[in-house]
Amino acid sequence: MIKTTGSFTLRFTRIPFKLLSLLFVIVAPAAVAASAVATVSQNVVPVGEAFQLTISVDDSVDSDTLDLTPLSADFIFGRPSVSNSTSVINGSMSRKTEWRVAVAAKQTGTYTLPSLDIDGMKTEPITIQVVNASQKNSLKDKNAVKLTATVDRVKGYIGETFNYRIRLMIGIQLDSPTLQAPKGEGLDVKQVGEDVQAEAVLNGRRYLVISRLYQITPTKAGSIKLQGAVFSGTEVKSNGWGSSLGLPIEREAESMTLEVLDKPTDYQGLWLPTPSLKLSQSWQPDSLDGQLSVEVGEAINREITLKIKNIKQSAMPNLSLNYPQNVRVYTDKTEYSRDGEYTVMTVKQVIIPRDVGDTELPELSINWFNTQTEQPQTSELKGLSIAVKSGKNAHSSLNTDNGFWQ
User: Fold this and answer.
1) 11-34 confidence digits (pLDDT tens)
2) Prediction pTM value
């Protein structure tokens, strides 16, 4: 299912948690030793009403090794049903033993399902909130869906991006889930990369965990309120006759205030605010001393890499290189990528000398504003001196001309 809000898309597939668990086993690396995990169908339950406790072991064990008597102090329980399964994936065999048991609390309050021992493997204890049956419909399960957001900092310069990370945890089946991006006046918000999905067990509850990263770029200075991301959906309730829709669920991440500083009034040139800029290059053939001897028509490869932290791709500078007339230059399409919080730009060029003689290939300098020192800074790359002599490629290079050479 795909739900779109503006230019932002959230992809969810309504997959039963049993299937999600199977998928997790498929992609997870093989365990070094067997382990036991206990999960519950819900953490907030009416007194006397049964909920499901599931104990899973990623190995084949005797069904009688599970002792449920530690539950008897605060809970009543039925006879567990046991299942064993074996799967072979890429030639690797895995086994699983699972117990499912109906459990009900004896009285209201907050209680703990104690740790259970299965042949030396212990489950984590689980906290259960028990309420009166009359509160069942009015009580909201706040743990069913959790939404948290963090920002890498709350102070920066205009044009400098803030990294806003969302962590969404879904512990129930939902219909029409939607995630709206954070927003604020004077803020440009853009999702970076794809959502990352995983599975986690927290206090006995199995969650689908979705992580998302936004780049937030202020377009004006001042104190700007950033309204948190908003998640909404409708719970799908299952019963013996099928499924039905429950109450709508909405979660909103906490709002925060960003302090945005303006560009210094005396700053000159391209405004490029960042705490870190890394500029590097490589030559082929290699040049260890800044000088190279080549023949006319012999290709020289130059690759320039620019990495800038906290800058969106559209704000990356154009690299201006003025080559002499006695060389032809072919430039590949600029490549962009991400390296953590850095936006990476890679420029690849092929340089062909056309005339015999000494030639200077240009250096490169980039002016930027260091937001840590709050001072202008310049990063530079050296050029290259080449001694061009006549050779076997001279004639063919002089007669080669197409729309890519400049």
Assistant:
1) 433 434 333 333 333 334 444 467
2) 0.75
Taking the C-alpha atoms of residue 152 and residue 213, their distance in angstroms, rounded to an integer, is 11
- What is the C-alpha separation between 68 and 99, in angstroms, rounded? 11
Q: How many helices (DSSP H) and strands (DSSP E) are in the chain?
A: 2, 33
- C-alpha 109/C-alpha 138 separation (Å) is 17
Distance (Å, whole) CA 318 – CA 146: 42
Query: CA–CA separation, 124 vs 202, rounded Å?
Result: 10
Rg (CA), the chain: 31
Task: Give the integer Cα–Cα distance in Å for 144 and 233.
Answer: 12
The pLDDT tens digits of the residues spanning 160-187 come to 999 999 999 999 888 889 999 999 999 9
> What pLDDT is recorded for position 34?
78
Question: What distance in Å separates the CA atoms of residue 306 and residue 348, rounded to the nearest whole number?
Answer: 12
Question: Within 10 Å of residue 16's Cβ, how many Cβ atoms?
Answer: 10
**Is residue 125 exposed (0-12), middle (13-18) or buried (19+ Cβ within 10 Å)?**
middle
Tokens standing for residue 316: 């990356």
| Beta-carbon count within 10 A of 404 CB | 11
Terminal Cα distance for the chain, rounded: 49
pLDDT confidence tier of residue 279, bands split at 50, 70 and 90: very high
User: Predicted confidence band at 235 (pLDDT cuts at 50, 70, 90)?
Assistant: confident
Are 116 and 99 in contact by the 8 Å Cβ rule? The answer is no
pLDDT in tens, 305-320: 999 999 999 999 999 8
Element (H, E) at 22: helix 17-27
CA separation for the pair 131, 44 (Å, rounded): 7
Distance, CA of 355 to CA of 300 (rounded, Å) = 14
Tell me how crowded residue 119 is: count the other CB atoms within 10 A of its CB.
14
φ/ψ (deg, to 5) at 14: -80, 90
- Residue 317: C-alpha distances to residues 260, 271, 283, 368 (Å): 22, 10, 22, 10
Sheet holding 222-226, edge to edge: 155-157, 256-261, 222-226
